[in-house]
Specification:
The chain is elongated. It has 2 domains: 90 residues, no CATH class; 195 residues, von Willebrand factor, type A domain (Rossmann fold). By secondary structure, it is α/β, with parallel strands linked by helices. Helix content is 43%, strand content 21%. The strands form 3 sheets. The chain has a 6-stranded mixed sheet, sandwiched between helices. The chain has a two-stranded antiparallel ribbon with strand order 1-10. Strands 7-8 form a two-stranded antiparallel ribbon. Strand 5, helix 7 and strand 6 form a beta-alpha-beta unit.
Length: 307
């Protein structure tokens, strides 16, 4: 597609320029001295000599082609899958997430599923990453750089601060989405035991104020899991997570194993086939400039004419 197709008429000058070029070359060759004749030189050296006018002509024609395509406003149009949302992932990193009812732990399973989600989100989807326990930490601000997100995810570990501040996590996640260019969604992965910080009701009011949907994934089996080598078992509070999701228009999933965490991410990752446009104007202009510089170098070095 072209935003300025009228400029494509300039392609009609290319055959004229080629004709003028070759007519000029023939006239010059007729006037040239005999020892400069290419046929004589080929006979002396025993091999075919490529007239330096041909590669220079090719470069000039390519410069002209790219310039015309650039001023014509060439736009590449294709159908692609686009996510409807930008996301903030808030991951519980409290001591209870070390329970072993998932392999290797609740936190390890959550990180594995999150990494897969990051890798397979459509290009251009922006994601921020937070971890929390009694306090919250923004591990990565909103970005579409998947490698930065994966590196930040790898550094998430259990936090020594006591408690689980789910309300604080919802508010912080919402704040990271302030500059999101699409719909805003939080993905909250936790066992749901809010016990410190801002109340859930205040956090929900804040999220709804900024039209943020909070999708909750409950991590923890019905039987609960033993924390480390202790005899201490922790369960999961699904009711509070269900209320958070329903109140903000998000989805609730009780993921009872690692695969179900991944399935929950798939359900959350909304998107659609959309028309994608890529403006090639700058690229073609850069190609034309590069070729023009290459021609100048060749004319003044390898193809330099001896006076």
């Amino acid at each position: 597609m072209f935003s300025n197709p009228l400029y494509l008429w300039f392609f009609g000058f290319i055959p004229v320029l080629l004709a003028v070029h070759f007519i000029s070359i023939r006239k010059i060759e007729r006037k040239a001295m005999l020892f400069a004749n290419y046929r004589a030189m080929e006979h002396v050296f025993g091999k075919k000599i490529l007239n330096k006018n041909y590669p220079l002509l090719l470069i000039r024609m390519l410069v002209l082609v790219f310039l015309i395509l650039s001023v014509a406003g060439t736009v590449l149009v294709y159908e692609g899958f686009i996510s409807d949302f930008d996301y903030a992932i808030a991951m519980d990193a409290s001591a209870s997430m070390m329970a072993k009812d998932y392999q290797p732990t609740r936190l390890g399973a959550a990180k594995d599923a999150t990494a897969e989600f990051i890798q397979y989100t459509p290009e251009g989807t922006k994601i921020s990453l937070l971890s929390f326990s009694g306090t919250r930490l923004v591990n990565q601000v909103l970005t579409d750089d998947k490698q930065k997100l994966l590196d930040s995810l790898g550094s998430v570990s259990v936090m020594i601060e006591g408690g689980t501040a789910i309300g604080e996590a919802i508010i912080s996640a919402t704040e990271t989405l302030t500059n999101a260019g699409k719909k805003r969604a939080v993905i909250l992965l936790t066992d749901g035991q809010n016990n410190v910080g801002t109340s859930i009701d205040d956090a929900l009011s804040y999220a709804k104020k900024y039209n943020v949907a909070v999708n909750t994934i409950a991590i923890g089996t019905k039987e609960g899991g033993k924390v480390g080598d202790t005899e201490f078992y922790v369960g999961v509070d699904t009711e509070i997570l269900k209320r958070i999701a329903e109140s903000t228009g998000g989805t609730f999933t009780w993921a009872k194993n690692t695969q179900e965490i991944k399935d929950a991410f798939t359900k959350i990752a909304g998107g659609s086939e959309q028309r994608i446009e890529v403006d090639l104007t700058g690229y073609f202009m850069a190609f034309a400039l590069s070729l023009f510089i290459a021609e100048l170098i060749l004319v003044n070095t390898k193809f330099r004419t001896i006076p």
